[in-house]
């Protein structure tokens, strides 16, 4: 069982998307904190290789900010390409693993623990990167998240992201109700409800356009989408 400070199994109450959103997002972070030691098992060899190729082809450079870095699977690759890399996650357990991975590779990065639902950037970057994070941002927080990201992008900079595509819905267990959430089980048997949106590439690009981004979002092999977004009218936001 998870202890009271790290995880809250979903056994008593399933918070809804409008009812108990804060509680749902707290539970989501608690789930990832508890999952950190077993997280890397998600990357089977084949999936990891195709994702590595995908990430390596993305336009990443200059000062880079990685959001929701997890165990650092991408952090270590980005660190080799960035002038400087800052990696952020809400889970200290994830950050510890990521830090060790980057150090073991003889690379450097700055690690910061932040809750991305209240995060306000203190600096601007040439590239803001996130992998498998956007699908965990609920619709009610989508615009606020992208507004925060806009504040982290230097003029001429870009946002680069990778996530699961709409077809991956079939690989998850939807939670009861219409909350865009799924149920996940950890090795200790505990069950957790997390937000999981399966973005369609074209719909996502259109949604981002409404928020002032020019985004190219494409399906990628292996059940993924890849996106590159730039602020459409930078001057309106600076
Ligand atoms: C699906 S994992 C992605 C990790 C990594 N980017 C990858 O591709 O392997 C989602 C990450 O979001 C982090 N996370 C969850 N809720 C968060 C929050 N509110 N603020 C910051 N990070 C959070 C988790 O700790 C986890 O590392």
Automatic annotation (TrEMBL):
SUPFAM superfamilies: S-adenosyl-L-methionine-dependent methyltransferases (SSF53335). The keyword Signal does not apply. This is Methyltransferase domain-containing protein. It comes from Dactylosporangium siamense. GO terms for molecular function: transferase activity. It holds the Pfam family Methyltransf_25. It comes from the Bacteria. Keywords: Transferase. InterPro entries: Methyltransf_25, SAM-dependent_MTases_sf. Residues 64-157 form the Methyltransferase domain.
């Amino acid at each position: 069982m998870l202890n009271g400070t790290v995880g809250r199994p979903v056994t008593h109450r399933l918070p809804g998307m409008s009812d108990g959103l804060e509680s749902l997002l707290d539970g989501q972070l608690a789930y990832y904190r508890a999952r950190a030691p077993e997280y890397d098992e998600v990357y089977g060899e084949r999936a990891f290789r195709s994702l590595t190729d995908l990430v390596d082809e993305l336009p990443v450079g200059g000062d880079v900010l990685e959001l929701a870095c997890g165990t650092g699977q991408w952090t270590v690759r980005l660190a080799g390409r960035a002038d400087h890399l800052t990696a952020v996650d809400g889970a200290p357990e994830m950050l510890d693993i990521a830090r060790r991975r980057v150090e073991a590779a003889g690379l450097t990065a700055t690690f910061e623990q932040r809750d991305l639902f209240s995060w306000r950037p203190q600096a601007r970057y040439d590239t803001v990167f996130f992998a498998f994070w956007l699908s965990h941002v609920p619709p009610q927080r989508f615009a606020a998240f992208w507004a925060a990201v806009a504040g982290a992008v230097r003029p001429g900079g870009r946002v680069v992201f990778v996530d699961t595509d709409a077809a991956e819905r079939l690989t998850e267990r939807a939670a009861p109700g219409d909350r865009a959430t799924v149920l996940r089980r950890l090795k200790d048997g505990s069950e957790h409800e997390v937000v999981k949106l399966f973005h369609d590439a074209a719909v996502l690009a259109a949604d981002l356009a409404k928020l002032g981004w020019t985004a190219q979002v494409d399906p990628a092999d292996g059940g993924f989408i890849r996106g590159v977004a730039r602020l459409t009218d930078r001057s309106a936001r600076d």
